[in-house]
Design goal:
378 residues, seven-stranded mixed sheet, globular, 8 helices
Length: 378
């Protein structure tokens, strides 16, 4: 009897150990904390706190949210202060990344945070061709869960680069079996809808993180285009606070797999201050059991004869069982409806008139059922 109890305890302990908590840390807009050496002490304090608490938090990854500096024309001293602060994480060999904000000119962003500093790191996935860390992705595994963090360059007003959206869509499609987090500086003001639409195009995206806005703290949820998954969006930006009192905050998210919940906390190491209101400390449900399966894969797995197929040589979309396509809609990565046809009696749809990119296809079969799939044309 005692032996059976010991075996059960061992099994329970093994289960518990495989479901350990872990944390994703954020560094919201630091632009006001690099204006002087005095203000940068606050930035440094937050980075040192992440290092000191990395074990107790089980800190898996840290991401800046953009607007690293304040002066758009590129003041060297501001970039040097930011680099010095971030080097605190670098010196501790912590997994982290940068994010370009609308105040961060691309030349200095790439100069002070070059790709070469990340090349060779086990978690570094890669960048958009001919670019820098403004468009980059990172891969890591935690207790049997595979994650991808995709950082997308700022999309704000006239600072829009559709090529970066196509790249992000391609990466998220390539790694559709990983739990996906998108990081981009602006997700809620002018231009931010492009980032929202990218997230909705992919069934594995569950979390989108941004800064930029003096709205300070804001959150909402969206459904993916298939309507089957919930995506959580969070804005956190404390640049407009009085740095002497409530400013200089960081935000971190602790994942608790045994509860299937994620807990958010807001803290300033400079004055050892926690924010306890419901916008600053909260939780949300997230299922951390099982594997990530895309909606179109779920359809194919449940009925192998019922799947959308795309031939990149002929540029034809078909159904695997040869059924007629009665209705088709094709949307671009940024949510624009590019094609909508009804009352068809065809078995194939051509994409010859579409440029290279990632598209979301919804088809109604002859029996009236709707199915959906992301396709990549290149």
């Amino acid at each position: 009897m005692k032996r059976h109890i010991l075996v059960m305890v061992s099994i329970l302990m093994a289960f518990m150990s495989s479901k350990a908590d872990f944390t994703i840390g954020l560094i919201p807009d630091t632009q006001k904390m690099v204006l002087s050496d005095t203000e940068t002490k606050k930035f440094n304090a937050n980075m040192k706190w992440y290092v000191d608490k990395s074990d107790s938090l089980k800190l898996a990854f840290v991401s800046h949210l953009g607007d690293i500096v304040d002066t758009k024309t590129g003041v060297t001293a501001e970039w040097q202060r930011a680099q010095t602060a971030m080097n605190i994480l670098k010196a501790d060999s912590m997994a982290y990344t940068m994010c370009q904000g609308n105040h961060d000119d691309i030349i200095n962003f790439r100069k002070y945070f070059p790709v070469s500093d990340w090349e060779g790191k086990s978690y570094f996935g890669g960048i958009k061709a001919l670019g820098g860390l403004e468009n980059a992705f990172y891969l890591f595994k935690l207790d049997g869960m595979d994650f991808i963090v995709v950082v997308i360059e700022t999309a704000y007003k006239t600072q829009l680069n559709p090529a970066s959206w196509d790249w992000a869509n391609q990466i998220l499609t390539q790694y559709k079996d990983r739990r996906a987090i998108i990081v981009s500086h602006n997700i809620n003001e002018s231009g931010g809808s492009n980032i929202v639409n990218i997230a909705k195009n992919h069934d594995n995206v569950f979390l989108v993180l941004g800064g930029h806005s003096c709205i300070r703290e804001h959150s909402w949820t969206e459904k993916n285009l298939a309507g089957t998954k919930t995506i959580h969006f969070f804005v956190q930006d404390y640049q407009c606070d009085d740095l002497k009192t409530t400013g200089a905050n960081i935000r971190f998210y602790t994942f608790k797999p045994l509860e299937n919940k994620v807990y958010a906390y807001t803290y300033s190491a400079w004055n050892d201050r926690w924010e306890r209101d419901s916008n600053s400390e909260f939780s949300f449900a997230y299922d951390m059991t099982g594997a990530v399966v895309a909606v179109d894969d779920q359809i194919a797995n449940s009925n192998p004869k019922m799947a959308i197929q795309y031939n990149r040589i002929s540029n034809l979309i078909t159904l695997s069982n040869g059924q007629e396509i009665r209705k088709v809609s094709i949307m671009s990565a940024n949510g624009q409806l590019l094609m909508h046809k009804e009352n068809n009696t065809t078995t194939a749809i051509s994409t010859n008139n579409l440029p290279n990119g990632v598209y979301f296809v919804t088809i109604q079969k002859e029996d009236g059922e709707n199915i959906a799939k992301n396709i990549t044309k290149f």
